[in-house]
Design goal:
Elements (H helix, E strand, L loop, with lengths): L12 H23 L2 H17 L9 H30 L9 H20 L2 H11 L5 H8 L3 H18 L4
Helix pairs in contact: 1-2, 1-3, 2-3, 5-7, 6-7
């Protein structure tokens, strides 16, 4: 069967199972290495495959690995963002002994963080992906290139473009 003419091949249970068998362990190990949490790695890997199944009609078989890793990274970042919101909420519930920073400083810090998060969220997907992997996941350009099936030069270019955009759209510290 020719994958170029069969865009719906991933939607066939047997083809999807082959894709699962080929990529699940590697994806889960990647997530486990990254987050050091078995349950989180399992959950995110499984959710990435759910997303793959939901999008099987628009993806080609050869796009599956890239889609899975990109989706897993995005799901991971969403999970980390959620954990941060929960932690921030818990901190708000705890009585404050003594704030070291002034309310003005805390407000400005919150505003800056929100602006930065919006600016990162507004980056084109390819730039945002490279930026997040490098700055929040501490991946080297070589590691990112291998993960995304790109050249190191392509990763460098995307990172440069992301930084230029962020410098233009975020206030100076």
């Amino acid at each position: 069967m020719d994958t170029h003419t069969d865009n719906h091949g991933l939607c066939e249970p047997a083809a999807f199972r082959l894709t699962f068998d080929a990529h699940y362990k590697m994806l889960r190990n990647f997530l486990l290495f990254r987050y050091r949490d078995n349950d989180l790695a399992d959950d995110i890997a499984q959710n990435a495959f759910v997303k793959l199944w939901e999008n099987c009609a628009i993806l080609k078989k050869e796009q599956a690995k890239s889609f899975l890793f990109t989706t897993a990274i995005r799901l991971s970042l969403n999970q980390l963002k959620h954990q941060k919101v929960v932690a921030d909420y818990q901190l708000q519930l705890e009585p404050k002994i003594a704030d070291k920073e002034s309310p003005q400083f805390l407000m400005e810090e919150t505003e800056f963080r929100q602006q930065l998060e919006r600016a990162i969220g507004a980056l084109p997907e390819r730039q945002r992906e490279v930026f997040m992997l490098n700055r929040f996941e501490s991946q080297s350009y070589t590691e990112i290139a291998a993960l995304l099936n790109l050249s190191v030069k392509a990763v460098e270019k995307r990172m440069h473009q992301a930084l230029v955009t962020l410098r233009k759209t975020t206030p100076k510290i």
